[in-house]
Amino acid sequence: LMQTLTLNNGVQMPALGLGVFQTPPEETRAAVAAALDLGYRHVDTAAAYGNEREVGQAIHDSGVPRDELFIETKVWISDYGYDETLHAFGKSAGKLGVDHLDLLILHQPLPSDFGKTLDAYRALETLLADGKVRAIGVSNFMVDHLSALLDAATVVPAVNQLEIHPYFQQREVQALDSRHGILNQAWSPIGGITFYRDSGHTSALDDPVIGEISRAHGKSPAQVMLRWGLQQGRSVIPKSTKPERIAQNLDVFDFELAADELAAIDELDTGKRGGPEPESITLAQFGRPIPEA
Ligand code: A2P
To answer: What keywords does the record list, in alphabetical order (predicted)?
Structure first.
């Protein structure tokens, strides 16, 4: 049974969605089709992933009514600025084959030109007011970025999508989000994409604490990590291209972790991120242009 979360503007979002970060375009259509067939109703993509068109094709082919779907995508930094971000909405919606999005978020803060980040967010506010998007938000915003945005913004973001998994929990940002009614959404929720040079584990999938809890419940380590996120009120968007894993990752609504199990997972935080440091993102290094629809 799919659980839904209520965003700070009243919009309902399925708590669990399919992530397609690092899903190659040629594998995206099949992965999204498998997920929709299994009962997923939330897909998270991004202009920068280069697979919005394939997500849109799978959505179209599925025949699932648009109002049953929750489609989330992200504006890339090369499209920041007010007019540019309004235009970026059209590029993403065109590739996805939809007239509106359920959630549109800024993919990264651009610390080296934060004014452009704020202009981009103002465009999201306009798109929200015009009914082009049902909710707006941010991603990878750390405490300073979020504080500066909240000072300038009219609309409090509905979501902050962050790297959150047992080895990197970002509790300070999560707490600030929660204080402002901003939903924490976890990318890489099973930590599968990331690498931990110093921990002795390649990912928390092999962690002995996770392993012990997973055996106690007859669930996989990935399912335990997703459950840990969901029970802490987060949205989780695990990525897989393999139908059996896509199915497994959805099968997390029939068991519950005990308080001491949640606490044991809380202990695993290493404070080391797998993804890029948000403060280091620059247009010069990462700002490749997003093609037209
Ligand atoms: P694959 O696409 O080959 O299944 P996350 O979204 O947390 O970063 O996890 C994504 C990574 O974890 C991908 O490498 C994905 O590989 C792998 N993965 C996804 N689901 C599972 C699962 N249930 N068990 C093990 N690995 C998984």
So the answer is: NADP, Oxidoreductase
